[in-house]
Amino acid sequence: MKSNIERVYKMSFAGVYPHYIQKAEKKGRTKEEVDEIIRWLTGYDQTSLQRQLDNKTNIENFFAEAPQIHPNASKITGVICGYRVEDIEDKLMQQVRYLDKLIDELAKGKAMEKILRQ
């Protein structure tokens, strides 16, 4: 189990990012909405987000260098990949799953203000 987690952390965020966009666009949502979700969760602005993508920053550093994980991130609940996001003890894995869950909600047609816990 540990080695799988380590492998996820070492993956380039830029490698995962197109999958988020593809998942959203397949359901009629946009890259802009994906970016908005990522910025909301991490505190990156569009320029610093693009820099992380250009630098092929790994997932571990992407979240470690995030200006601020949104204070309302703890309101993200539910199951993703068979795990309750609110019960994941590893902080970094929880943040990764938060993002997965938000993109999932986007693809399921949820309104942005609901996704962004406003």
TrEMBL record:
It holds the Pfam family DUF2200. The lineage of its organism: Bacteria, Pseudomonadati, Bacteroidota, Chitinophagia, Chitinophagales. This is DUF2200 domain-containing protein. InterPro entries: SP1917_dom_sf, UCP033199.
